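ESCALATION

Customer reports they have been waiting on this structure for their group meeting. Please prioritize. Original submission:
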Amino acid sequence: MSEAHLNSKAEDADSEQNFARSAGRQLLVFALLAVVFLGALMWGLQTLASMVGSSTASAQAIDYDNHIITIAIREEPPQLDSTRATDVSSGMILGHLMEGLLRMDLNDRLEPAIAERWELTSAGAKFWLRKNARWSDGKPITAHDFSFAWRTVLDPATASRYAFLLYPIKNARAINEGKLPLSALGVRTPDAHTLEVDLENPTPYFDKMVTFQTYFPLREDFYRSTQGKYGADADKLLSSGPFIATSWIHGASMYMEKNPYYWDAERIKLNAINVGYITSDPGATLNFFKDNKIAYTTLGAEDLAEALQQRWHIQREQDGAVFYLEFNHRNDRLTRNKNLRKAMQLVLDMDELVYKVTKLPGYLPGESLFPVWLMGVNDYFRKEHPAPKVRLDVEKAQAHLQLAKQELGLETWPQLVLLSGDNPLSNIQSEWTQGVFKSKLGLDLKIDKQIFKQRLEKMHAGDFDMVLGGWGPDYDDPLTFGDLFASWNIQNRGEYANAELDRLVAVAQTSVDQTERMQAFAGIQQIMFDDAVILPMYERGVTYVVNPHLHNIKRRVIGPEVDFTSAYIQK
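Update from on-call: job pushed to the front of the queue and completed.
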């Protein structure tokens, strides 16, 4: 899922050395001891005051009596139409409002959801829906709600950027390309609680795919009643999941209340989730947490010292996402030139970016489109198929750059445009990239900073030479990354095209031999390196803190990045 994104503090050590060398050394030592003593006294008083007032202040983050928590999210969801949503913020909210046929449990295993059982064969899949599954207005959730949703996703008029995720279904791709009518989709509903699916080819991972938001149900009468505004506001949404959006003040807040008609309502312990703040400023969210206004926040490198001083319980995990410098391969862009891309590949030191520039805990330097956590046949994919290594070489890079200049018929290099987010981390990364290309290659980059929604629109429109992009997994299989740069994939925003890569994607999509599939992914990984299709920058980790009275939240690699559906409050 596309998506995402801090600065370090330093003490001035020279002043101590100057004091130690001064003539009044002894007096100053006594003065310093007094300062230390007074500082410790003040810290103790502040800690005591904090402890005395904690129950009152923390009520803002946690309402113990009513079982309500307050949180912050980084970005405003562009919209909450599950047939069109592609971003992390929308996915996080939808993961609390909606549920599909199957879901991932707290141990990241597949389990029944609206479907109480299912059957998957090489020819198709069959799902038996719960008879007590209901929408948030009390009406039954039926098999038709899934068939209607999937046809809506595939309807060319919807222009869903995730329609390709439904291509395993019989005739889905032809329908999405306008070659067949919607009625030709290989989905049948013999009764209200049975859903039968014909597959285009054997798809052994299809049951994992239906956990994703694009496969969520949609009730036809409600959808049509919104007159094209489904998912635009709280009253334009209908929930199949644990919570209902009862308020959405755009750009400011959202309120989600427990859905009383949810089939698994007894599992849900929170009565409401108050999204009290929408901000990409990490300093603001840290202060909100410190002031007990929110119950959860992520931490940046510069926040760790304070977190330790506050004695917060710091937690760390990988979140599954890969971030990269993506090129525009269209014919009207200079970045279509392979030698230019190879020159850039040979000068970007991702170890430097991760360990010296951003310095964010849990991050790993980028090496591949495929992150380290993906499984292969018997072990992790990247252990069975190691990523090719970039050997930094400025001299060789400059030779590639000279070849590119000749091939493009240039006398001088014009300014190239780097599209970026406008948050603090994106600023650091884009300015580092700009500086490296200038100092190593003499290339000028113009940084085009855009707010989240506008950046997405520019990416999809191809309005960039390069963009700081990323991808989070939609389902638990390497194909969720492997088909990203297939020529037909609408998420291939730079419009890269390679017939061999397309062939390998087709093998990975249809083969039931896991060894053959993993070899296909290894081939894709090699093409991504050889052709410098993208430059992997980092795999994102996350360091975070949770209010000690809030338990059982789940950070997910697959699904909403932070899942509060199993959370509960306990003093």
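Sent to customer with the following note: The chain is about 35% helix and 20% strand.
Escalation resolved.
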